[in-house]
TrEMBL record:
Any one Pfam family match given in the protein's UniProt record, by short name: SGL
Lineage: Bacteria, Bacillati, Actinomycetota, Actinomycetes, Streptosporangiales
InterPro entries: 6-blade_b-propeller_TolB-like (IPR011042), SGL (IPR013658), SMP-30/CGR1_Lactonase (IPR051262)
Domain of life: Bacteria
UniProt organism field: Nocardiopsis codii
Protein name: SMP-30/gluconolactonase/LRE family protein
Amino acid sequence: MVTARTLALLVAVGAVAGCSNAAADPGVDQETDRTAELLVQVTSVHEETGMTLLEGPTFAPDGGLLVVDVTAPAGEPKVLRVDTESQEVTPVFTNEDSAYTSAQFSPFDDRLYLTDFVGGRIDSITLEGDDHTTFFSGDVDGAPMQPDDLAFDEAGNMYISDSTGFSDPAWEAGGRVVRIDRETAEATVLADELPAPNGISFTEDFAGLWVGQYAANRVDHYALSEDGTEVENSHAAIHFDGGTSRIDSIAVDAEGNLYQAVHGQPSIFVYSSTGEHLTTVSVPDDAAEGLESATNVAIAPGTTDAFMTVSGDDGGFVYAFDALGEGIRQSNGG
């Protein structure tokens, strides 16, 4: 049963719920905006929560595309599988109380890890949706966490955007970036007092992190120590002129390009690693009116087949487009 408090949180979640590159490639036309094509409708608006919000697209080891429905009520599928060839949609997992905002398979154990924004947990299931366990829960440095997106390093350690304060004024910055050890589940704060971080992705070489600051409409670059346990320096890297829309999740392709998802318009903005706006990927004009957000994107590993999760009053959809670079781990979930 969805309580009034939970419903309010679920609705609020809808607002959060990412140098040698395409700019130097004469074969890439970065001046022309791209129109994505509808692949399949995955969900409809739920009567209980008044909305649907698809997030966390990620390709499983067997090639299937998994997505999460953030606002799915108890009993409705919260993790779904999309066959990109047949367009068949099948439920994978549900439970009573979670609001999953992202998903990614760990390189350490090949399990699917899910961030529960409302519960403050990191859950884990098998590819088939079995053996549901909680990998992490509780306070971090004495304060609860609202985990939004996640990224794995090559060893399987987890990096989380803690979007605490996402509904507060931007000057009341209470968000963090948190690292969780793959074996001990020990949490360490890498950065704090942030304006509601949302999207998080490693650079293509795993040397640093891109972190999208939802309440500031900017993407920061964090240079990490060699072992990934400290931020050695950081700077504001990309500023997004979104008006009433705000940045959501981030994906990175093999060329180092950033795919910046947006809450408030059904579009993905693509930037080079040096901040050049390369192209914008949007849904067709006749579909845009009933769609509010493009929350995330996944590029099939080793290909340029890209899929973005789009939601609004018309329902939750997956749209397809041709990416500027090939898919890697950094463009496959989170």
